[in-house]
């Protein structure tokens, strides 16, 4: 390799290193500023003296009301056998205003046997196969419903329902 | 004569076909087992889907402060639970995720008998509409980070009711810090 080529390679290498360093710096910097997590040390958690309790309740009420989850589910889904579809009937109602994800775990083993991707408001799963093959029998299980913001997919919270799965053969 | 014979044969053939069909239909509906004999009868049934439809909170915000003069130290919103189904349901708290790591020297308490450095959070059914509980006598206390399965509410078909967050805290618990308490509500059909 000639002297000129070596010099070019060194410059390119240095540039690449600089770019990598800039990328790492951006990622770290971005992580700390993205969610605006710079809490003020001077802030005191609690109720400002003189603040009306009813006013504070109204603020809290708005948060609760905004984060209510509506859903429907079949409490007794039936599967002909371990690999067939069953009538899960999981619904995200049209007036929900949130994305929902459902996952089913068997109560006794805590094993997840089914999960959905996001369900948009106004959609439902009528029937589906489980992700795990269950033997013939009845299983107490819990459907966990997780809610996400409809536009940002930010996690909001979760709730759930108890169901009994029947596998007939 | 030959015509009559052909007609008779046709009628007999048709009646045989229809009677066979009728017999086949009846055998799928029932099967007789002779008294005193033995036999197996296949029981064919179906499980009707029971669709449960509810509206429940996914977030339960509250403020807690010793500056409240009541026994209950929590300011809570009205936590509505609505059963939109035609079957009765019960609401339980299956698990409560608690993070009090920012509260220095503070521990969790599973009931109202808090020590000076303890905090306890529970839920109470609404007694008077839109009125937060002032006492703690009817509170159901949340256990931190463990399975609990505690019933907090029963709802008849198409009924709505509400809960409030209640709490107690010791005098030495810091008030200038946040902490999180996240109960998971599970609805189940009641019989």
| pLDDT averaged over residues of chain B | 81
Poorly predicted regions of chain B are: 7-38
Query: Helix count of chain A, per DSSP?
Result: 2
Query: Which structural class best describes the helix and strand composition of chain A?
Result: alpha+beta
Provide the β-strand percentage band of chain A: 25-35%
Please identify the oligomeric state: heterodimer
CATH topology of the largest domain in chain A: Immunoglobulin-like
SSE order and pairing:
The complex is a heterodimer of chains A (169) and B (191).
Chain A: H1 3-33, H2 53-66, E1 68-74, E2 78-79, E3 85-86, E4 90-92, E5 98-106, E6 112-115, E7 123-125, E8 128-129, E9 137-149, E10 155-167
Chain B: H1 2-29, E1 51-57, E2 63-64, E3 74-75, E4 79-83, E5 89-99, E6 107-108, E7 118-125, E8 140-141, E9 147-155, E10 160-169, E11 180-189
